[in-house]
Please model this.
Amino acid sequence: MTNQEIIALTGKYVAATYARFPVALVRGEGCRVWDADGKAYLDFVAGIAVCALGHAHPRLLRAITEQARRLLHVSNLYHIEPQARLAELLCRHSFADRAFFCNSGAEANEAALKLGRKYMKERVSSDRTEVITMQGSFHGRTMATVSATAQEKYHRGFEPLVPGFKYVPFNDLRAVELAVDARTAAVLVEPIQGEGGVRVAADGYLAGLRRLCDERGLLLIFDEVQTGLGRTGTLFAYQQAGVAPDILTLAKALAGGIPIGAMLAREEVMAAFTPGTHAATFGGNPFASAVALETLQTILEEDLPGRAARLGARILERLQGLQARLPLLRAVRGRGLLIGIEVGTDAKAIVSRCLERGLLILTAGDNVLRLVPPLILGEAEADEGLAILEGVLAEAA
Model:
């Protein structure tokens, strides 16, 4: 089928919940994808930070094929070897003692919210039910996670929201302190707000939240659905702050494109989840777990966090140099290969022009461009993509 044929079919039969670009991507290899008409694109979107190993990575293809031949799915009523091995690897390389598996970032955050509430009710006080979240955050599209998301545009039409959330400004520790009261159970925060404009936690902010939670007896939850698994230059973004949460959520890059989510927690906290309290039919099934295990092993063995740190610093330096020449660029920020470029024009128009020239990028809000390429991105590919972006920005200026 051609691009136009696929677009027409989508328009007729698929729910119109996405503002789609006028291309249908049908094939990928490495850091490139091709549309149905054969045009190639350099991919700086990676499925929105999902395809950490790019497209058609040989190790993932082997894991997918071998596990599909062996066993796709069984219920969590039985023990699952790849799931157990994946949990062990995640715990060995993080603060956590146990993992719970689901299918997406929203589900991981749902699990974290449920666990936090249940732990506090049973171990601390039945009145401790509220969670403080940050303005500009994004935690998912379910009713609970969209209620936790402190952006009004995601709330419209879905009121009344789930109660139990209090919003404060991001990077304002004093605002969190003032918001804490006798009903507060936890603080939920992204180390870097992705959908909120690639806004990085200020130095000392996460450590300050940790101190506050310890002093007030609160749980600290980090949403690393987008920042986790090497993207920011360390396996987890929290590791750069020198503090650990009580609960952490993951998804996106965990299986390189196969749906899976995870919630990690300390032993004491996870003990509040007992048989029958929470579940996910497909969560951590043999297929998804085997692919996630291979993805995580590849990220670790090939030191892709280190690669992201080095290449990300190089890209940021080049973009900051461009900012000095183009007043259109208001700010450049990010860590590793999660980079935001604030522009003084419609960011969507810049994205469309890059698409026309064979580069896929995306937005993070109305005036921020977001770059989240695969972690396997090479220097030559980075230079190629930046040359296209610079040309489009220069014309827009």
Observations:
- Residues 304-325 form the longest helix (22 residues).
- The chain has a mean pLDDT of 97.
